[in-house]
Amino acid sequence: MKWEYRLEKFKMDGFFNKAIDETSVIQALNSLGDMGWELISFEGQSIGFGETKEILAVLKRSKD
Fold first, then answer.
1. CB within 8 A of 45, min separation 6: which ones?
2. Could you tell me if 1 and 62 are in contact, meaning their C-beta atoms sit under 8 angstroms apart?
3. For every one of its 64 residues, what pLDDT tens digit does the chain have, with 9 covering 90 and above?
4. Which of 28, 31, 49, 56 is spaced 20 to 30 A from 6 at the CA atom?
5. Which domain holds residue 37?
6. How many domains, the chain?
7. Strands ordered across the beta sheet of 52-62
8. Phi/psi at 34 (nearest 5 deg)?
């Protein structure tokens, strides 16, 4: 079986207390799932000092 991969970035909002819009992320991932994408990794990307600037999602689906 062959796979294709996709990266999705979700930006953190806020200046001092960064947060992610969970509703938007869930909607985006559900939409991608409807297109056959499967989430395989979800992790924060930091800019230093332990501050997360974005969340990176890695997805895969069968390449037919």
1. 9, 52, 53, 54, 55, 56
2. yes
3. 899 999 999 887 766 666 778 889 999 999 999 999 999 999 888 776 667 778 899 999 999 8
4. 49
5. 3-62
6. 1
7. 3-11, 52-62, 38-46
8. -65, -25
